[in-house]
Design brief:
The chain is of the alpha/beta class. The chain has two domains: 131 residues, ATPase, nucleotide binding domain (Nucleotidyltransferase, domain 5, 2-Layer Sandwich); 51 residues, no CATH class. The chain is 25% helix and 27% strand. The strands form two sheets. It has a five-stranded mixed sheet, with helices on both faces. It has a four-stranded mixed sheet with strand order 8-7-6-9. A hairpin with a 4-residue loop joins β1 and β2. The longest helix is centred in the middle third of the chain and has 18 residues. The chain is globular. It starts with 6 loop residues before the first strand and ends in a 30-residue tail after the last helix.
């Protein structure tokens, strides 16, 4: 293997899981996927370290960090983006954010529409053609039939490794040019209910 082939670590916690992959060039050295509804903050870096140890790769050998920026679970996205920024800062390497739409679209022909499960009988959708992509939007699942086929994701022809493995490949390709710091991709307000009790009065 040529020495110039970069090592890229990528992870995604935008779903109820920790999804981590390690690449060397175009070769996937390792991939771990652990389903969990909570605890991603405690498990993510443990899985990353285990994957690198198994591959015999030191953190200082990494060339870039790829991270899933959503859309998806609010807390999960923040966990991954914060971890990616921290690792990148400590190692002096770029952190590259990749949306779930781009990860699912990897290797697919255009035109197509990429969909991500948004729960509540809704989906996040983004349409792509040969020249440009539309802005992502939140739709009712009943509107899927109005979208440009083929529809990829959200239970329709979703590739097996649409998460961290795809994110790692995209990050590897994007690292050749300057990238903005990864930031969460939120397409609807947080699921925070307003307080039922009136706020306390502040006495002068």
């Amino acid at each position: 293997m040529a020495a110039r082939d970069p090592f890229v670590l990528a992870f995604d916690t935008s779903r109820a899981a920790c999804d981590v992959a390690l690449l060397r060039g175009h070769e996937t050295l390792g991939h771990r996927f652990e389903e969990m509804t909570k605890g991603q903050a405690e498990r993510l870096l443990v899985i990353c370290r285990s994957l690198m140890v198994d591959a015999g790769i030191a953190p200082t050998e990494l060339s870039a960090i790829g991270v899933g920026i959503g859309p998806g679970n609010f807390t999960g996205i923040r966990i991954a983006v914060s971890a990616a920024r921290g690792l990148a800062l400590g190692l002096g390497i770029p952190a590259i954010g990749v949306s779930a739409f781009d990860a699912l679209r990897l290797g697919a022909d255009v035109p197509c529409t990429i969909c991500v499960d948004a729960r509540r009988d809704q989906v996040y959708a983004q349409a792509f053609d040969a020249n440009r992509s539309q802005e992502p939007r939140l739709l009712a699942r009943s509107e899927l039939e109005t979208l440009t086929p083929p529809i990829i994701g959200a239970g329709n022809a979703s590739p097996r490794y649409a998460g961290a493995v795809a994110i790692a490949h995209i990050a590897r390709d994007r690292m050749v040019s300057p990238q903005p710091r990864p930031a969460p991709l939120y397409l609807r307000p947080a699921d925070a209910a307003p307080a039922k009790d009136p706020p306390p009065k502040i006495l002068s």
